[in-house]
Amino acid sequence: MTKTADIATTATTTQDYVYVAEYLQRIGTISLIISLQPGFSASHIQFPDKPSRTINLVYSQSRCDNKSPPTDELSSPIDLPVEFALRFAGTLKKLSGGRTELLSIRTDPQQDLNKQLNEKLSFLDDGQDSNPWSIKQLKRLETKSKIDGSIANAAQFKCKSCESKLISSETITTWKALPSETWAEMMDFWHCHKPSDDGGHNHSHAHSDVPDSKTTTTAEPVPSFNPSYAVSSFEAYPSTALVGLSYILFHRSHFTPESFTELSDIDGARFPLLTCRSCNAWLGYVDSLQTFRVFKWNLTLVSDSTLLLPSLYPDYLFLSATIAELISSHGIYTFSLLEEDYNPDTKSLKADDRELALIWIFNPDIHYCTNANDCSPAVSESETTITTERGYKVFYSIDPTVMPELKETRGEIEQLYFPRKVIDSVLTHLDNNSKLYPPEVKTIGNKNWNVSILDRLK
Protein backbone atom coordinates (compact mmCIF):
# COMPACT_ATOMS: atom_id res chain seq x y z
CA MET A 1 0.00 0.00 0.00
CA THR A 2 1.12 3.52 -0.68
CA LYS A 3 2.59 5.44 2.26
CA THR A 4 -0.18 7.56 3.74
CA ALA A 5 0.14 11.02 5.22
CA ASP A 6 -2.60 13.14 6.80
CA ILE A 7 -5.37 12.24 4.37
CA ALA A 8 -6.04 9.37 2.00
CA THR A 9 -8.83 9.16 -0.55
CA THR A 10 -10.48 6.35 -2.54
CA ALA A 11 -13.45 6.19 -4.90
CA THR A 12 -15.69 3.44 -6.28
CA THR A 13 -15.89 1.95 -9.75
CA THR A 14 -19.70 1.81 -9.94
CA GLN A 15 -21.55 4.32 -12.11
CA ASP A 16 -24.50 4.41 -9.71
CA TYR A 17 -22.56 6.60 -7.29
CA VAL A 18 -19.16 8.06 -6.53
CA TYR A 19 -17.61 8.41 -3.11
CA VAL A 20 -14.62 10.12 -1.55
CA ALA A 21 -13.10 8.67 1.62
CA GLU A 22 -10.51 10.96 3.22
CA TYR A 23 -8.33 9.62 5.99
CA LEU A 24 -7.78 12.35 8.60
CA GLN A 25 -4.80 10.80 10.32
CA ARG A 26 -4.27 13.39 13.03
CA ILE A 27 -7.76 12.95 14.41
CA GLY A 28 -8.08 9.25 13.53
CA THR A 29 -11.13 9.60 11.29
CA ILE A 30 -12.22 8.66 7.78
CA SER A 31 -14.46 11.31 6.23
CA LEU A 32 -16.74 9.62 3.71
CA ILE A 33 -18.77 11.52 1.10
CA ILE A 34 -21.15 9.51 -1.10
CA SER A 35 -22.85 11.07 -4.15
CA LEU A 36 -25.55 8.95 -5.80
CA GLN A 37 -26.75 9.47 -9.34
CA PRO A 38 -30.32 10.75 -9.94
CA GLY A 39 -32.90 8.08 -9.26
CA PHE A 40 -30.87 6.34 -6.52
CA SER A 41 -31.08 6.68 -2.74
CA ALA A 42 -28.87 5.29 0.01
CA SER A 43 -30.21 3.02 2.75
CA HIS A 44 -27.36 2.02 5.07
CA ILE A 45 -23.71 1.06 5.43
CA GLN A 46 -22.93 -2.53 6.43
CA PHE A 47 -19.64 -3.08 8.26
CA PRO A 48 -18.00 -6.55 8.05
CA ASP A 49 -17.58 -8.67 11.19
CA LYS A 50 -13.96 -7.64 11.63
CA PRO A 51 -11.96 -4.46 10.89
CA SER A 52 -11.43 -4.15 7.16
CA ARG A 53 -10.65 -1.64 4.42
CA THR A 54 -13.93 -2.51 2.68
CA ILE A 55 -17.49 -1.72 3.73
CA ASN A 56 -20.76 -2.18 1.82
CA LEU A 57 -23.16 0.52 0.69
CA VAL A 58 -26.77 -0.63 0.46
CA TYR A 59 -28.97 1.52 -1.79
CA SER A 60 -31.95 1.31 -4.12
CA GLN A 61 -33.24 2.73 -7.40
CA SER A 62 -36.55 4.58 -7.67
CA ARG A 63 -39.22 3.47 -10.16
CA CYS A 64 -39.70 5.63 -13.25
CA ASP A 65 -43.30 6.52 -12.29
CA ASN A 66 -42.22 7.63 -8.78
CA LYS A 67 -45.33 5.87 -7.43
CA SER A 68 -44.22 2.26 -7.22
CA PRO A 69 -41.92 1.15 -4.39
CA PRO A 70 -38.18 1.26 -5.10
CA THR A 71 -36.36 -1.67 -6.65
CA ASP A 72 -34.74 -4.33 -4.50
CA GLU A 73 -31.80 -3.08 -2.50
CA LEU A 74 -28.43 -3.12 -4.20
CA SER A 75 -25.12 -3.65 -2.42
CA SER A 76 -21.75 -2.36 -3.55
CA PRO A 77 -18.33 -2.37 -1.82
CA ILE A 78 -16.62 0.85 -0.81
CA ASP A 79 -12.86 0.65 -0.35
CA LEU A 80 -11.49 2.70 2.54
CA PRO A 81 -7.92 4.02 2.71
CA VAL A 82 -7.39 2.30 6.10
CA GLU A 83 -9.29 -0.13 8.32
CA PHE A 84 -12.20 1.11 10.40
CA ALA A 85 -12.16 0.82 14.20
CA LEU A 86 -13.10 -2.47 15.86
CA ARG A 87 -16.22 -1.02 17.50
CA PHE A 88 -17.87 -0.69 14.06
CA ALA A 89 -17.38 -4.40 13.21
CA GLY A 90 -20.61 -6.20 12.40
CA THR A 91 -22.73 -3.07 12.77
CA LEU A 92 -25.13 -1.27 10.46
CA LYS A 93 -25.11 2.51 9.94
CA LYS A 94 -28.46 3.92 8.84
CA LEU A 95 -28.29 6.66 6.21
CA SER A 96 -30.65 9.55 5.50
CA GLY A 97 -31.94 8.14 2.23
CA GLY A 98 -30.82 11.12 0.19
CA ARG A 99 -28.52 11.40 -2.83
CA THR A 100 -25.63 12.86 -0.83
CA GLU A 101 -24.38 11.23 2.37
CA LEU A 102 -21.64 12.49 4.67
CA LEU A 103 -20.24 10.13 7.30
CA SER A 104 -17.43 10.10 9.86
CA ILE A 105 -15.83 6.73 10.64
CA ARG A 106 -13.32 6.24 13.45
CA THR A 107 -10.09 4.36 12.81
CA ASP A 108 -7.80 2.24 15.02
CA PRO A 109 -5.65 4.55 17.24
CA GLN A 110 -2.69 2.15 17.14
CA GLN A 111 -2.88 2.09 13.35
CA ASP A 112 -2.74 5.90 13.31
CA LEU A 113 0.36 5.93 15.54
CA ASN A 114 2.10 3.35 13.37
CA LYS A 115 1.44 5.40 10.24
CA GLN A 116 2.79 8.54 11.88
CA LEU A 117 5.97 6.65 12.84
CA ASN A 118 6.39 5.25 9.31
CA GLU A 119 6.03 8.76 7.91
CA LYS A 120 8.85 10.05 10.08
CA LEU A 121 11.11 7.09 9.26
CA SER A 122 10.50 7.41 5.51
CA PHE A 123 10.79 11.22 5.36
CA LEU A 124 14.52 11.28 4.60
CA ASP A 125 14.16 8.61 1.90
CA ASP A 126 11.39 10.41 0.01
CA GLY A 127 13.49 13.22 -1.42
CA GLN A 128 13.76 13.70 -5.15
CA ASP A 129 12.30 10.29 -5.93
CA SER A 130 8.87 11.93 -5.95
CA ASN A 131 9.92 14.14 -8.88
CA PRO A 132 9.29 13.18 -12.52
CA TRP A 133 12.41 11.52 -13.98
CA SER A 134 14.26 11.84 -10.69
CA ILE A 135 17.97 11.20 -10.32
CA LYS A 136 17.14 7.83 -8.76
CA GLN A 137 15.18 6.86 -11.87
CA LEU A 138 17.64 8.17 -14.46
CA LYS A 139 20.57 6.45 -12.81
CA ARG A 140 19.10 3.26 -14.25
CA LEU A 141 20.27 4.60 -17.61
CA GLU A 142 23.94 4.67 -16.62
CA THR A 143 25.52 2.79 -19.50
CA LYS A 144 27.65 -0.30 -19.04
CA SER A 145 29.46 -2.12 -21.83
CA LYS A 146 28.45 -5.71 -22.37
CA ILE A 147 30.96 -8.45 -23.15
CA ASP A 148 30.15 -8.21 -26.86
CA GLY A 149 30.92 -4.49 -26.86
CA SER A 150 27.31 -3.31 -27.10
CA ILE A 151 25.86 -0.74 -24.73
CA ALA A 152 23.40 -1.77 -22.01
CA ASN A 153 20.57 0.50 -20.87
CA ALA A 154 20.69 2.70 -23.95
CA ALA A 155 17.74 5.07 -24.25
CA GLN A 156 16.57 8.01 -26.33
CA PHE A 157 14.98 11.31 -25.46
CA LYS A 158 12.62 12.59 -28.14
CA CYS A 159 10.87 15.88 -28.70
CA LYS A 160 7.46 15.58 -27.06
CA SER A 161 5.85 17.69 -29.78
CA CYS A 162 7.01 15.81 -32.87
CA GLU A 163 8.74 12.63 -31.59
CA SER A 164 11.97 13.43 -33.44
CA LYS A 165 15.10 12.01 -31.82
CA LEU A 166 17.08 14.54 -29.78
CA ILE A 167 19.38 12.73 -27.36
CA SER A 168 20.87 9.27 -27.00
CA SER A 169 22.00 8.08 -23.58
CA GLU A 170 24.76 5.88 -25.05
CA THR A 171 27.33 8.61 -24.46
CA ILE A 172 26.08 9.37 -20.94
CA THR A 173 27.77 7.11 -18.43
CA THR A 174 26.91 9.15 -15.34
CA TRP A 175 23.78 10.94 -14.13
CA LYS A 176 24.22 13.37 -11.24
CA ALA A 177 21.74 15.37 -9.17
CA LEU A 178 21.72 19.15 -9.21
CA PRO A 179 21.08 20.97 -5.94
CA SER A 180 17.65 22.38 -5.25
CA GLU A 181 16.54 25.07 -7.67
CA THR A 182 16.02 27.29 -4.63
CA TRP A 183 19.56 26.60 -3.40
CA ALA A 184 21.09 29.66 -5.08
CA GLU A 185 18.44 31.89 -3.53
CA MET A 186 19.05 30.42 -0.06
CA MET A 187 22.83 30.80 -0.43
CA ASP A 188 22.34 34.39 -1.56
CA PHE A 189 20.19 35.08 1.49
CA TRP A 190 22.75 33.49 3.82
CA HIS A 191 25.59 35.45 2.21
CA CYS A 192 23.72 38.71 2.83
CA HIS A 193 22.75 37.93 6.41
CA LYS A 194 25.71 35.96 7.72
CA PRO A 195 27.36 37.38 10.91
CA SER A 196 30.07 39.94 10.32
CA ASP A 197 33.50 39.66 11.90
CA ASP A 198 32.54 41.96 14.78
CA GLY A 199 29.60 39.77 15.73
CA GLY A 200 26.99 42.03 14.19
CA HIS A 201 24.99 41.56 11.01
CA ASN A 202 25.29 43.35 7.74
CA HIS A 203 21.75 43.74 6.43
CA SER A 204 22.65 45.31 3.11
CA HIS A 205 20.87 43.63 0.20
CA ALA A 206 23.16 45.07 -2.47
CA HIS A 207 24.57 42.23 -4.55
CA SER A 208 27.01 44.27 -6.57
CA ASP A 209 30.77 44.01 -6.20
CA VAL A 210 30.82 47.82 -6.16
CA PRO A 211 29.16 49.42 -3.12
CA ASP A 212 26.32 51.81 -3.82
CA SER A 213 27.60 55.25 -2.79
CA LYS A 214 24.08 56.40 -1.98
CA THR A 215 23.42 53.68 0.57
CA THR A 216 26.83 52.56 1.79
CA THR A 217 28.94 54.74 4.06
CA THR A 218 31.53 52.24 5.23
CA ALA A 219 34.84 51.81 3.45
CA GLU A 220 34.47 48.04 3.69
CA PRO A 221 33.19 46.35 0.51
CA VAL A 222 29.63 45.13 0.59
CA PRO A 223 29.56 41.33 0.53
CA SER A 224 28.60 40.26 -2.97
CA PHE A 225 26.71 37.20 -4.11
CA ASN A 226 29.09 34.52 -5.33
CA PRO A 227 28.00 33.63 -8.90
CA SER A 228 29.25 30.08 -8.37
CA TYR A 229 26.22 29.52 -6.11
CA ALA A 230 23.88 29.84 -9.08
CA VAL A 231 22.54 26.58 -10.49
CA SER A 232 23.11 28.00 -13.96
CA SER A 233 26.87 27.84 -13.30
CA PHE A 234 26.86 24.03 -13.39
CA GLU A 235 28.22 22.46 -16.56
CA ALA A 236 27.40 19.13 -18.16
CA TYR A 237 30.23 17.00 -19.53
CA PRO A 238 30.48 14.63 -22.51
CA SER A 239 29.97 11.65 -20.19
CA THR A 240 27.73 13.30 -17.58
CA ALA A 241 24.22 14.77 -17.49
CA LEU A 242 22.90 16.75 -14.51
CA VAL A 243 19.33 16.26 -13.27
CA GLY A 244 17.30 19.09 -11.75
CA LEU A 245 13.72 19.30 -10.56
CA SER A 246 12.16 20.54 -13.81
CA TYR A 247 15.01 20.26 -16.30
CA ILE A 248 18.12 18.28 -17.28
CA LEU A 249 21.49 19.76 -18.22
CA PHE A 250 22.86 17.94 -21.28
CA HIS A 251 26.19 18.39 -23.00
CA ARG A 252 26.12 19.51 -26.60
CA SER A 253 27.62 16.18 -27.67
CA HIS A 254 24.63 14.29 -26.23
CA PHE A 255 22.36 15.70 -28.93
CA THR A 256 21.81 14.10 -32.30
CA PRO A 257 23.52 16.30 -34.92
CA GLU A 258 21.22 18.86 -36.53
CA SER A 259 18.33 18.02 -34.17
CA PHE A 260 18.26 21.44 -32.53
CA THR A 261 18.48 25.16 -33.27
CA GLU A 262 20.11 27.83 -31.14
CA LEU A 263 18.41 31.21 -31.12
CA SER A 264 20.30 34.17 -29.71
CA ASP A 265 19.18 37.78 -29.13
CA ILE A 266 15.62 36.72 -28.29
CA ASP A 267 13.56 39.35 -26.51
CA GLY A 268 12.74 38.33 -22.93
CA ALA A 269 15.17 35.39 -22.86
CA ARG A 270 17.75 35.10 -20.09
CA PHE A 271 19.91 32.85 -22.30
CA PRO A 272 19.87 31.88 -25.99
CA LEU A 273 16.89 29.63 -26.67
CA LEU A 274 17.06 25.99 -27.71
CA THR A 275 14.38 24.74 -30.12
CA CYS A 276 13.62 21.52 -31.97
CA ARG A 277 14.76 21.81 -35.57
CA SER A 278 11.98 19.53 -36.81
CA CYS A 279 8.95 21.33 -35.33
CA ASN A 280 10.36 24.59 -33.85
CA ALA A 281 9.06 23.67 -30.38
CA TRP A 282 10.84 25.40 -27.51
CA LEU A 283 13.03 22.91 -25.63
CA GLY A 284 14.93 25.09 -23.17
CA TYR A 285 18.00 27.32 -22.95
CA VAL A 286 21.63 27.31 -24.06
CA ASP A 287 23.25 27.86 -20.68
CA SER A 288 26.77 27.96 -22.08
CA LEU A 289 28.72 26.99 -25.16
CA GLN A 290 28.55 23.28 -24.27
CA THR A 291 25.62 22.99 -21.82
CA PHE A 292 21.94 22.86 -22.83
CA ARG A 293 19.12 23.15 -20.28
CA VAL A 294 16.11 21.13 -21.48
CA PHE A 295 12.79 21.23 -19.62
CA LYS A 296 11.47 17.78 -18.81
CA TRP A 297 7.94 18.58 -19.99
CA ASN A 298 9.31 18.92 -23.54
CA LEU A 299 10.73 15.38 -23.64
CA THR A 300 9.62 11.81 -24.22
CA LEU A 301 11.84 8.95 -23.01
CA VAL A 302 12.18 5.70 -24.95
CA SER A 303 13.97 3.04 -22.92
CA ASP A 304 14.14 -0.69 -22.28
CA SER A 305 10.93 -1.84 -20.59
CA THR A 306 12.97 -3.67 -17.93
CA LEU A 307 14.11 -0.29 -16.57
CA LEU A 308 10.52 0.58 -15.57
CA LEU A 309 10.92 4.20 -16.61
CA PRO A 310 7.82 6.16 -17.72
CA SER A 311 8.02 7.37 -21.30
CA LEU A 312 6.36 10.66 -20.37
CA TYR A 313 4.51 12.41 -17.57
CA PRO A 314 1.36 14.54 -17.58
CA ASP A 315 2.43 18.18 -17.71
CA TYR A 316 0.63 19.05 -14.46
CA LEU A 317 3.03 16.82 -12.49
CA PHE A 318 5.92 19.20 -13.21
CA LEU A 319 4.08 22.10 -11.60
CA SER A 320 3.09 19.80 -8.75
CA ALA A 321 6.75 18.90 -8.13
CA THR A 322 7.69 22.59 -8.16
CA ILE A 323 5.03 23.31 -5.55
CA ALA A 324 6.39 20.51 -3.34
CA GLU A 325 9.86 22.05 -3.54
CA LEU A 326 8.61 25.53 -2.61
CA ILE A 327 6.52 24.24 0.29
CA SER A 328 9.57 22.40 1.62
CA SER A 329 12.04 25.25 1.18
CA HIS A 330 9.89 28.35 1.74
CA GLY A 331 6.75 27.21 3.55
CA ILE A 332 4.56 28.88 0.91
CA TYR A 333 1.12 27.39 0.28
CA THR A 334 -0.50 29.82 -2.16
CA PHE A 335 0.58 30.21 -5.78
CA SER A 336 -0.50 32.28 -8.76
CA LEU A 337 0.05 30.83 -12.24
CA LEU A 338 1.32 33.02 -15.05
CA GLU A 339 2.34 32.27 -18.61
CA GLU A 340 5.86 32.41 -20.02
CA ASP A 341 6.04 30.88 -23.47
CA TYR A 342 7.81 30.88 -26.81
CA ASN A 343 6.08 32.00 -30.00
CA PRO A 344 7.57 30.08 -32.96
CA ASP A 345 6.05 32.54 -35.46
CA THR A 346 7.70 35.62 -34.00
CA LYS A 347 10.61 33.67 -32.47
CA SER A 348 10.15 35.50 -29.20
CA LEU A 349 9.75 34.59 -25.55
CA LYS A 350 7.01 36.42 -23.69
CA ALA A 351 5.92 36.51 -20.05
CA ASP A 352 2.32 37.52 -19.47
CA ASP A 353 1.55 39.27 -16.17
CA ARG A 354 -2.11 38.25 -16.22
CA GLU A 355 -2.79 35.67 -13.52
CA LEU A 356 -4.45 32.59 -14.98
CA ALA A 357 -5.17 30.85 -11.67
CA LEU A 358 -4.77 31.16 -7.93
CA ILE A 359 -4.07 27.90 -6.04
CA TRP A 360 -4.19 27.44 -2.28
CA ILE A 361 -2.65 24.18 -1.01
CA PHE A 362 -5.04 23.33 1.82
CA ASN A 363 -3.48 19.95 2.63
CA PRO A 364 -0.01 19.20 1.19
CA ASP A 365 -0.22 15.41 1.17
CA ILE A 366 -3.28 13.24 0.58
CA HIS A 367 -3.71 9.80 -0.92
CA TYR A 368 -6.74 8.92 -3.01
CA CYS A 369 -8.18 6.89 -5.84
CA THR A 370 -11.08 7.71 -8.13
CA ASN A 371 -12.79 6.23 -11.17
CA ALA A 372 -13.02 9.77 -12.62
CA ASN A 373 -9.29 9.60 -13.37
CA ASP A 374 -9.26 5.94 -14.40
CA CYS A 375 -7.27 4.89 -11.37
CA SER A 376 -9.99 2.77 -9.81
CA PRO A 377 -9.29 -0.54 -8.06
CA ALA A 378 -7.95 -3.20 -10.43
CA VAL A 379 -10.06 -6.36 -10.31
CA SER A 380 -8.67 -9.85 -10.90
CA GLU A 381 -10.33 -13.24 -10.53
CA SER A 382 -8.89 -13.69 -7.06
CA GLU A 383 -8.82 -10.28 -5.43
CA THR A 384 -9.34 -6.55 -5.70
CA THR A 385 -6.27 -4.37 -5.43
CA ILE A 386 -6.84 -0.84 -4.19
CA THR A 387 -4.88 1.68 -6.23
CA THR A 388 -4.12 4.86 -4.30
CA GLU A 389 -2.88 8.09 -5.81
CA ARG A 390 -1.05 10.92 -4.08
CA GLY A 391 -1.99 14.57 -4.25
CA TYR A 392 -2.72 17.92 -2.65
CA LYS A 393 -6.15 18.95 -1.41
CA VAL A 394 -6.47 22.36 -3.04
CA PHE A 395 -8.76 25.33 -3.28
CA TYR A 396 -8.40 27.26 -6.52
CA SER A 397 -9.92 30.03 -8.61
CA ILE A 398 -9.65 31.01 -12.26
CA ASP A 399 -12.05 33.95 -11.99
CA PRO A 400 -10.09 37.20 -12.55
CA THR A 401 -12.87 39.22 -10.90
CA VAL A 402 -12.47 37.53 -7.49
CA MET A 403 -8.76 36.61 -7.46
CA PRO A 404 -7.61 40.05 -6.20
CA GLU A 405 -9.96 39.78 -3.22
CA LEU A 406 -8.89 36.18 -2.51
CA LYS A 407 -5.22 37.15 -2.62
CA GLU A 408 -5.76 39.66 0.18
CA THR A 409 -6.66 36.80 2.53
CA ARG A 410 -3.71 34.56 1.71
CA GLY A 411 -0.57 36.39 2.87
CA GLU A 412 2.57 35.47 0.94
CA ILE A 413 1.92 34.30 -2.62
CA GLU A 414 4.50 32.83 -4.99
CA GLN A 415 4.24 33.60 -8.71
CA LEU A 416 4.97 30.63 -10.95
CA TYR A 417 5.67 31.11 -14.67
CA PHE A 418 5.08 28.11 -16.92
CA PRO A 419 4.35 27.50 -20.61
CA ARG A 420 0.66 27.66 -21.44
CA LYS A 421 0.47 23.93 -22.15
CA VAL A 422 1.56 23.15 -18.58
CA ILE A 423 -0.93 25.59 -17.08
CA ASP A 424 -3.75 24.27 -19.29
CA SER A 425 -2.89 20.73 -18.17
CA VAL A 426 -3.10 21.81 -14.51
CA LEU A 427 -6.45 23.58 -14.93
CA THR A 428 -7.99 20.68 -16.85
CA HIS A 429 -6.77 18.26 -14.20
CA LEU A 430 -8.18 20.37 -11.35
CA ASP A 431 -11.52 20.72 -13.14
CA ASN A 432 -11.76 16.95 -13.64
CA ASN A 433 -10.92 16.17 -10.02
CA SER A 434 -13.39 18.75 -8.71
CA LYS A 435 -16.13 16.56 -10.16
CA LEU A 436 -15.42 14.10 -7.36
CA TYR A 437 -17.28 16.35 -4.97
CA PRO A 438 -21.04 16.91 -4.82
CA PRO A 439 -22.35 20.49 -5.16
CA GLU A 440 -22.73 20.83 -1.38
CA VAL A 441 -18.97 20.61 -0.81
CA LYS A 442 -17.61 21.54 -4.24
CA THR A 443 -16.96 25.18 -3.37
CA ILE A 444 -16.14 27.22 -0.26
CA GLY A 445 -15.85 30.90 0.63
CA ASN A 446 -19.07 32.18 -0.94
CA LYS A 447 -18.34 29.82 -3.84
CA ASN A 448 -15.20 31.77 -4.77
CA TRP A 449 -12.87 28.81 -4.12
CA ASN A 450 -13.29 25.54 -6.04
CA VAL A 451 -12.36 22.32 -4.19
CA SER A 452 -10.17 19.79 -5.99
CA ILE A 453 -7.11 17.54 -5.83
CA LEU A 454 -3.81 18.18 -7.62
CA ASP A 455 -1.92 14.95 -8.21
CA ARG A 456 1.61 14.36 -7.01
CA LEU A 457 3.97 11.65 -8.20
CA LYS A 458 4.00 8.72 -5.81
From TrEMBL:
GO terms for cellular component: cytosol; nucleus; ubiquitin ligase complex. InterPro entries: UBQ-conj_enz_E2-bd_prot (IPR019193). Residues 200-220 are annotated as: Disordered. GO terms for biological process: proteasome-mediated ubiquitin-dependent protein catabolic process; protein autoubiquitination; protein monoubiquitination; protein polyubiquitination. One of its GO terms (molecular function) is cyclin binding. Residues 200-212 have a biased composition (Basic and acidic residues). It comes from the Eukaryota. Pfam families: HECT_2. This is Ubiquitin-conjugating enzyme E2-binding protein. It comes from Geotrichum candidum (Oospora lactis). The lineage of its organism: Eukaryota, Fungi, Dikarya, Ascomycota, Saccharomycotina.
